[in-house]
Amino acid sequence: EPEVTQTPSHQVTQMGQEVILRCVPISNHLYFYWYRQILGQKVEFLVSFYNNEISEKSEIFDDQFSVERPDGSNFTLKIRSTKLEDSAMYFCASRAPGNTIYFGEGSWLTVV
Amino acid sequence: KNEVEQSPQNLTAQEGEFITINCSYSVGISALHWLQQHPGGGIVSLFMLSSGKKKHGRLIATINIQEKHSSLHITASHPRDSAVYICAVDFGNEKLTFGTGTRLTIIP
User: Fold this and answer.
1) How big is chain B by its Cα radius of gyration, in Å?
2) What Å distances lie between residue B83 and A59, B80, B87, B102, CA to CA?
3) What pLDDT, on the 0 to 100 scale, is given for residue A17?
4) What DSSP element (H or E) covers B9?
5) Across the interface, which of A55, A89, A100 has its CB nearest the CB of B48?
6) Phi/psi of residue A54, nearest 5 degrees
7) What is the pairing mode between strands A107-111 and A10-13?
8) Average pLDDT for residues B85-107, to the nearest whole number?
9) Nearest to A48 among B33, B43, B94 (CB)
10) pLDDT at A19 over 90
11) Residue A56: is its pLDDT beyond 80?
12) Pairing of strands B19-25, B4-7
């Protein structure tokens, strides 16, 4: 069974620090996503990425956020200067040609 | 506005019971996904539907496009089915809009 892998599984960071969350999507998938889930709330869309560029982003995805696919395999989410309200589980996902979505196990970010 | 509503929010049942979780949405869709979220937080895709019905083991998912409604059924429920079940909808813009989830607890 193919899988999306995410690192780290858990990160604690000081407010104002930069954080990079990493994802390795499934190799033949073309669409990649980042979603987040604040504790006790529903999952929210952050950004979608296709053909090496952002295809859509939510209003949450402000100038503090960026995504990259630096080497053709890894897909990263960077938060430049973290805020307390960025504490959440961040999920990477990739979409198969038949439209099934595969999610990573998530990266739990705690900003203190 | 693209909205997804799930019910119930919480469901507790005895082992062996037949379980139904409901999802309704506001406008036409490309596809509807049923997802399972484990206690550790990981999300697994169970079904993707655009019409009709799908079955996998003890899980059955149905969708009624005209009524904008989908159901997830679990037959012969087991404690290991305890998880949060999430309905997520693609409204044709290739991203998913999520429901709030249904926390299912199956008691032995």
Assistant:
1) 13
2) 30, 8, 13, 8
3) 98
4) none
5) A100
6) -65, 130
7) parallel
8) 94
9) B94
10) yes
11) yes
12) antiparallel
